[in-house]
Each structure stands twice: as C-alpha cells, then as structure tokens.
Amino acid sequence: MRRVVHQRINASVFPDLATLAGNVERVTAHLAGRAPVSLRLYPAAAGGGTVARDRHGVPWRTLDYLDGTCTVHRFADPAQAGAAAAVAARFVADLADLPGPALPEVIPRFHDVVGRLRHLEAAAAADVAGRAGACRPEVADVLDLAPVAREIAAARADGRLPERTVHNDAKAENVLFDQATGAAVCLVDLDTVGPGTVLFDLGDLLRSGAPTGGEDGDPRHLRVRADIAEAVLAGYADAGGAFLTPSELALFPRAGPLMALESAARFLTDHLRGDVYFRVDGPGHNLRRARAQLRLVELLS
C-alpha cells in the first residue's frame, strides 16, 4: 500500500496553472535522479499532465506521502537548524544543471522587495479599508528600511548575487524531518521554485526558524536564538561550498533582514487592503504580523 497526498491547488494564488504544473513536473523529475529522497508527482487519470479538475472545476494534484516524516514551526536546536540549511543548499546544487529553458516565475516578481515597498506605499495612499491612519508608524518604519532592499536589488543587477534556481519559500515548515532519526529529509511545497538568489532561501530559514515566538504575538517578547541563526548560516555555507561565490557569502548577513522586511511589507500591505490575501483570525492580525517581522529585521541585523 502506498499513501499519497491529494492536494487542492489554490487557483487564486496560482492563476497560471500551466506554468505551475510545468515547473513542478520538471523539478520533481530532475530531483528524482539526484536527491536521496524527493517527492513524486503522479499523472492525472485523464487529459494528460498532472493536474485534474473536479466537477466544480477546482484543480487538484497527487504526490507521494513521505511516511515517517514531520515538520516543525521552529528549529529545536542548532543541529536541526544546520541540517535544514544543508538540505536547502543541496536543493540548489541539485537543480544547478536542470536542463533549459530556465524555469519561469510562477508568481512574477514574487521576491521583488523594492516592488513590495512600492505596493505598500500605494496601499497606504489609497487606504481602501480606512486603516492607514492607525498604522502610519509601521508604514514609515518599513519604508525607512528600503536601503536593505535596494542593496540586494543592486547586487543582483550587477552579478554579485548570481541568479540560481532556488526554492523561494524555504521556511522551516517546508523542511521534512525523519521522525526516527531527526535527519532533514527534503524540501516540500515546490510551487515557488524558480529563479532567485540563495539569500531568499537562507533568509526564510532564518526568519522562520530562529525566533523564539510566533509571528503574531507581542513583538516585544520576540527573541532570536543566536545559536540557531549561526547554525543556519554555517550549515548552508558548508553544504553549498562547492557553488557559493565569495560575494554571496559576503551578503549572507543581509538574508534574514531582507526576508523579514519583505514579510513585513506584505503583511502590512494586506492589512491596508482589507486582508484580502493572507488568512487572518480577525481585524488587526496582519498588522500584528507586520510588527513582529519589523522586530525580526532588527533582531536579525
């Protein structure tokens, strides 16, 4: 008996299903011959491809269920953090020779942090939900951090940060661990895999895995475990030593602040637009998240 996952695809988040399916099909097929453990995508029963629609037109797909694995919200200790970072680095290494053409972006400009800041500014000016007056300090704080985003954008433009095929959503929850041994097994949730910089994956591992509190609590109580942050940086550098460049390594300290800044901008923009993208537990949830991410920018800097 083989257990599988029947997964509903969010067509609102991923309207370009053809690109999404094509990317995931190429990535899983390539990793099947490289990674020790990888996800297998099953063909649809009818119509070809790997996406099937139910009678309501909702798209679904089927993948392997990896028995004996689990996920975590935060890294428990430096060993777990380093192992997760190593898996993320090997993921990039395994996709380095993915046959062309280059994977297209499933969500265009997903990690354009400079663009995210422009969207925030526009949302604050439009104020469609009438919330701008109550969060002007947070908007100002996020926009004041624009130099971090511009520095990374400039490094990508001039080649100091090479364009690589990366996961693009390598948060702690997207790393599977072996329940018996504790070893990191593989990355999951491959929908965002595509062009980017290693800082995106490294920063998400730091932003999600090193804090001691949740993303929607009181930011004054947030802390970052320095031992876990150091283990993430070291684990990624060690496992990626064969392909990482000196300029990438030099910019590693910017990874955490960059991705926390992007998250703060996204949460705050959604708050200003009336909570139309992220699932929330009520009014103000996205604002609390944005405040926590702002605190993480400070703690990870």
Largest sheet: 3 strands, antiparallel
The low-confidence runs, each spanning 5 or more residues with pLDDT under 50, are: none
- Name the helicity range: 40-55%
Strand content: 5-15%
Span between N and C termini?
49 Å
- Taken together, the total number of domains comes to 2
Tally of DSSP helical segments: 10
Number of strands: 8
CATH homologous superfamily grouping of the largest domain:
Aminoglycoside phosphotransferase (APH), C-terminal lobe
Q: Write the element-wise H/E pattern from the N-terminal end onward.
A: EHEEEHHHHEEEEHHHHH
What is CATH's topology name of the largest domain? Aminoglycoside 3'-phosphotransferase, Chain: A, domain 2
Explain what the structure shows.
This protein is 45% helix and 10% strand. The longest helix is centred in the C-terminal third of the chain and has 21 residues, at 252-272. It has two domains: 1-67, no CATH class; 68-110 and 123-300, Alpha-Beta Complex (Aminoglycoside 3'-phosphotransferase, Chain: A, domain 2), CATH 3.90.1200.10. By secondary structure, the chain is mostly helical. Strands 1-3-2 form a three-stranded antiparallel beta sheet, with no helix packed on it. The protein contains ten helices and eight strands.
Give a short synopsis of this structure.
Helices cover 45% and strands 10% of the residues. With 301 residues, the protein is mainly alpha-helical.
